[in-house]
Fold each of these.
Amino acid sequence: MEQLRSYFEETIDSIFYDIIDYARSGDMSSWLREKGESDLADKVDSIDENLGDSEYFSRLSALMTGKETASDSFEKPDFSKCFQVEEARLEESSGGMKV
């Protein structure tokens, strides 16, 4: 565990993409669970897969080094709470149905 944490503290460029691939594949969280770090594994799993490599690594690094802050949010937003549908119509056209 300490060796894994040291990779984030030293920021070793030669294994940057290996670490990202290891985390995104789920192998890192599986290993963490084997080591009894289930809470940390859950947090690693909750990092948005669609982030760019640098942002993904930054969030992963914050988790692994214990430097995450209250402003770090790893939950995906619920977009259904962002929109309200007031009126919907269904129209049929030659291309199919439109809402």
Amino acid sequence: MPIIKKVKCNGKDDYPQGSERQELEARFEDLIYEDLALGSQVSYVGNRPIPFLRIYRYKEAFSLNFVNHFLAKFNANPSSDYVFDPFSGMGTTLFGSMLGKIPSVGIDRLPIAYFVSKTLPLFLTLKPHDLSRAWINLIPTVPRNIPAEIASDVAIMKVAFDETTLLILRRLKSAICGLPPHLRDMLFLVFFSVLEDCSFTSKDGQFLRLERDKKTSDPIKVMGKKIAQVEEDIRRMKLFYPNLSISKEVIPEVHLGDTRDLSDIQFKKSPTILITSPPYANRYDYTRSYSLELCFHFVKDFEELKELRFGILRSHIESKIAQNEKSPHPIVTEVLEALSKKELNNPKIPSMLTTYFIDMQKVIREWHRVLAPNAKVAMVVDNVRFEGELVPVDLILSDMAETSGFKVKEVIVARYKGNSSQQMKKYGKVPVRESVVVWEK
């Protein structure tokens, strides 16, 4: 049940009088309410104590509790439902569906996300000491391996590691490559999870921040600690789910694909539940945040990384806009007009907003095409603010959803987020909402 029906910010009074945004806010006003208990569930933080989901920190993920909440809300039935996550990320939706014995399918355009989504379920097949034995046997072979090829021409790779650590990591990658496929993939996931600890970098919003004075970890030692954590998680899963039995029918299907065009995805049947969170229109570039992982295993060189950067959903500041592309929604147009009169700290923000909503319009139309009749959708989205101009992403996407044929059931405010210190100093402190939009086909 909603905690507070009336939201405390981003209402009609937060927009210019008579603006398109004010009118849209008024139109959806009766569907917007707060459920701030969800605030702790829409971030990765909730996965930190969860076995296996804590192995790899995919910082944009939501929590297992969030998935469980909406599976329960939608009365998910293992015998009739089919869950879809079109931005699968680390695969929390798929993992939660699997634990609930519900078949699921996920896709992601980012290779590291696809890999994590596909690999995490394998950890449920492990028996105690399987992985630790493989690791112990692997360690002596590492120095004898030829260093693996990586995308060494990417700028961050030239400064992210000291020479000794980089050599060990490259040899370690070669050693892991020689293992049987199921052990190889699980050890690679552990390997990717320690790259940041072994480097002079830290994931920081839209890029990797370089910290020259950072104390880095020894790859072999930190891998050993992670594998000990996996062994602990095997024991904990048996305590949490003593009768857990994973059949082939509920192991998630995962595809490397693009939700803007689902024509190549072979669904077992039309999905009945969609739980997801797309990239936010906040300038974050996933190909930069996860560049260590991508450069170690998924791209050969800078050209491939750049191609990926311009091929993902256009939510970041380097998004390319075609000459004939224009605002797909009147509120986007209104925001762009307002921003054109201001001095922006990055002149590419208008192009990013335009392409983001063009892409999301394609996404929503594809979802409506492939989902089953009466399918339920729960999507986490984040409103944004640029140079004092609030962009109600939750309502723009909901309006697009109605145009595509969905019925908007709820806009649940999970939490409120602050702005940059520069914006607050210039325009005052106006927190923006992070919401869960709930639609039905």
